[in-house]
Design goal:
about 450 residues, 19 helices, 2 domains, mainly alpha, about 75% helix
Length: about 450
Amino acid sequence: MLSNYQYSFKEKYLNNILILSVFFCVFSVAISVDFFWDSHVNVLSLPDPVWDYSVAFIWSLVILISIPLWPIQEKHKLLLIICWIVRIGLILGFMLYYETHYGSGRLDAKTYFHRGLLANPFEMLVISESGADHIIGLVSLHNRVFPDSYHSLKVTWSLCGLIGIYLFYLASTIILRKDSSLLFLILGLFPSLTFWSSIVGKDPLVIFAIGIYAYGVIKFFLQKKIIYFLIIFFGVIFSGWIRIWMPLIMLIPLFSFCCIKIENVKKLLLMLSVLGAIIVALYFINLEMGLVNLNFEVTAGSRTIDHMVGRVDNISKGWAEGGSARKIEGGITNIVDVLLFIPVGMFAALFKPLISDLSNIFGILAGVENTLLLMFIVVGLTKLTLFKIVKIEFIWIVLFIICWAGLYGFVSYQNLGTATRYKAQVLPFLLIFTYLLYQSACNKVCYEHDSK
């Protein structure tokens, strides 16, 4: 009797959220179209704006109707429907204001769409080595399959982002050993994650790739099946195809995971495979960024370090532009500066901007979100019992966050607007980490070491 009551209560709770999501969607679309349509059309220079928007609306409804047919657990379908309805309101509603506000300046989505109309997808997808060109190639390919529509691109990219977030959730259920509607809704409706995983750009696809990687890692170390190792491989390669440095961020935590989790000969082979992949990733990153001059003599170690520090400084300064820009005091001049800056940059990458950092509406919203997230993590850490033995998967999540923040800190510190967008890549891990902290503090999850 009690279990039936709990089920009914949960069902009623989710039905109320569903109704709220529909109200949000209708309100957001109606208000945005009424107030921003004309200026939005002028800024984006769309060939046929009404047709463009109509195609996207129909495409978003087709996806909505198809969700009950997806080959997933029945209890997840209503949650996905709620998340998708909110995304429709965001993509075809509030985002019109964002595009109107930034469309006259540097809006990558606008560039991707218009260049995609003229590009040869084969040249962009296969021949080009640039992540931006790969996005243009995908846009061009999308335009070959679907009618030319900027807004339908947002729908497709948002779908990729949502699938990536869902894969993060599936990975978290394996760690928790249970489902959690609350965690699903946190991941699926977190404001900045929902927004930045819905734009036409690199971020939704990177989130999709990391989601594949996260699901593959957890399933592989649980079941030891080669199919999941191939899933990991695909996620790593696809993310590197979009952003060349992402494989390094993904492989270092994976290598650490291998060292602890896999036994005997399999452990050795897997460790060597991942280590080899890390070396290859470092090589291609160096080709892209020129961090180390490979022509230097071995004895010229100090010259190599100076060259690398100079490149890091120049790359970091390259992001100090726009209204959200700020510079590192004194710059980065030596390896000591690099080491001292890393923790400062990591904090900026994960928790900046805070409430007082930016004055525009997007900066204020991001500041409120980051401040609350920081408060939850600090409180969660204070409640965590220090003598608990933490689960290995928990350590893997922390290592990923550290690797990501350590690299992105050099960019995020000098451009807080960019920091907000880039952080969407690691936000699912950060939110799962926060949730696990509270579950551990409340003794709802057993974090005992699993040597199996």
